[in-house]
Design a protein that fits this description.
36% helix; seven-stranded mixed sheet; binds pyridoxal-5'-phosphate; alpha/beta; four-stranded mixed sheet; Aspartate Aminotransferase, domain 2
Length: 371
Amino acid sequence: MYHKRQVVLVRGEGARVWDADGREYVDCTAGIGVAALGHAHPVVVEALTEQAARLVTCHEGFYNDQRAALLDRLDAVTPSALDRFFLSSSGTEANEAAIKFSRAATGRPEIVSAMRGYHGKTFGALSATWGKSYRTPFEPLVPGFRMVPFNRPDAVVEAISDTTAAVLVEVVQGEGGVRPATTEYLQALRTACTNRGALLIIDEVQTGFGRTGKLFAFEHHGVAPDILTLAKSVAGGVPMGVTAFGDAVGQLPKLSHTTTFGGNPLACAVADRVIAHIVSADLPAHAAAQGRRLIDAVETLSSPRVREVRGLGLMIGIELKQPAGPAARSLMDEGILVLLAGSTVLRLLPPLVIQPEEIDRVITALGKVLA
Ligand SMILES: Cc1ncc(COP(=O)(O)O)c(C=O)c1O
């Protein structure tokens, strides 16, 4: 199911990883934007080992101290209107819950999402996801979903009606090519959802917890969601998804949506410490500064092979005028691991703790490969 790169990664520290032959790489993939604190960070290691020795599993049918601490932490860092949290184990599950909750809360069927959007690959999230090759083999998908062009306020406002349960959107489309939403688009969406009684679901699975230079990417635009979905960085590499909501959703029937692993103490203990560290070390500010440096440097290269550089914080897309695969392979030869987003975009999602000298290595390698 995966394209494999010809390398066996066995160890990591900070923003660096090593392969089985001892070769070092600067890791601008971070498990696709997961390892916010980098690899083997003492905060993650301590939380994992301490909690593993205390209590790994405890179903949501019981209260648990680590889960309670995490819920308090999430409550403190998210907008005050979002004060309830459904815990799961992945981004697609966070969106699945959001889609179901919005239908239950509004009694309406329709979910509107954006072209080029990516929300996951379980049936509900996939039905809101753009990629044709992801959808076609598994059709028919869930009924009641429709997609409208991204960053077109008029199109989305027109699509929201009194049968719309929710609009589901990313603030920066990641998989779709690192495309930031405009403030005008998000504000128009917010107003139209409020006016029509539809819920705004913001998917910050990739952008959340400092990646874009703010704790949450919606903060760049002065727009707040009714439901916020999170995963990837939240537990620093341990699987976790979070669906945050508030009174707009209200109470749902007990047991109507559950998952065995959701809220397990191991993931909760790590997530609590990871979020605390992201905030206390002000990693969003570090991401903003290092990301700016990297984007400026790539723009200064004025490479004839680059069509556009896009991004926010440490979520960076370099769109080439040709397929990006060969450039990604050349970067690997130079000791830099990067991702692709579509066929022509190099995507960089390094750990938020990446150091200036590691950014310099990335810049040097990009200079060589894109010359
Ligand atoms: C914006 C967004 N939403 C949802 C998902 C799905 O998350 P997962 O792969 O954990 O199911 C992703 C994964 O890349 C994502 O980037």
